Amino acid sequence: MKIVFFGTSHGVPEPNRRCSSTMIETGGARYFIDMGTQSIEQLITRGIRPETIKACFITHMHGDHTNGLISFIDLCSWYFKDADPEFYLPGNTDKSVEAIRNWISCVGQEMRAFKFGHVDDGFVYEDESIRLTAFRTKHTDASFSYLLEAEGKRVYFSGDLRSPLYLDSPLADIPVQEFDKGLDLAILELAHFDAPDKYYSLLKDKANIKAVCINHYSNIHLQSAFELIKKLPEQKIFLATDGLELEI
After folding, report:
1. pTM of the model
2. How far is CA 93 from the centre of its chain?
3. Separation of alpha carbons 115 and 113, rounded Å
């Protein structure tokens, strides 16, 4: 399984870092977690055919996680007609689909009949290559983290969390039971959960967490990331950057 970070920034782009978008390659197919940047352009730049994208899963509907979604659906509607990805959206899915349809109609195009699924707690999607499970977070009224299982590996995507300052329990946004079971990779945001002590309490003494990738951060959060790395020298902890490719 390969994980490619198309965008690793926080709520706004930074120099050389775009907003949230991650591509997963496994079983001869490709999937996205979020499309906060113009992912279609990066696919073309990399020589990747949009027809190989099987599904896109959105953690929540904020623009830094969805701004590339309409352009992707638009081009798959009228130009890349052999592409037939599925889209899984949280919140009011019908309202979001209608908004996308109306926007595309504003430029004189018609959205094709793609499959749109709804994201809620629990099982979301499964095919011959991956299984995806969602866990509700308190970042918005409809925001989720994801556990992706493929090739016998387990990868956790935190999505956006809510600051522990606003929670009765600092780890209430995180499915601790999945960390207890072990993960091959935990991809954790730092823009809203700027709390190395809390991540430390989650990760300490967990040899079954093989690697931790800090994602969705700004330069002002780097000190917190370095503090976490210093606290857990035995853990493999690193920063995500745009274009980073990981083989899991």
Report:
1. 0.97
2. 18
3. 7
The strand pairing partners of 57, in sequence order, are: 33, 88
Give the integer Cα–Cα distance in Å for 123 and 161: 20
Single-letter residue type at 239: L
Sheet holding 130-137, edge to edge: 122-126, 130-137, 143-150, 153-157, 185-189, 212-215, 237-239
With beta carbons less than 8 A apart as the criterion, state whether 227 and 190 touch.
no
Each residue's pLDDT tens digit, 187-212: 999 999 867 888 998 999 999 999 99
Helix, strand or coil, per DSSP, at residue 37: coil
The type of residue at 204 is K
In 10 A of CB 229, how many CB atoms?
17
Q: How many angstroms separate the CA atoms of 211 and 188, rounded?
A: 11
71-91 tens-digit pLDDT: 999 999 999 999 999 999 999
Kindly list the distances between the CA atom of residue 229 and the CA atoms of 165, 218, 226, in Å, as whole numbers in the listed order: 22, 16, 5
CA–CA gap between residue 136 and residue 50 (Å, rounded): 29
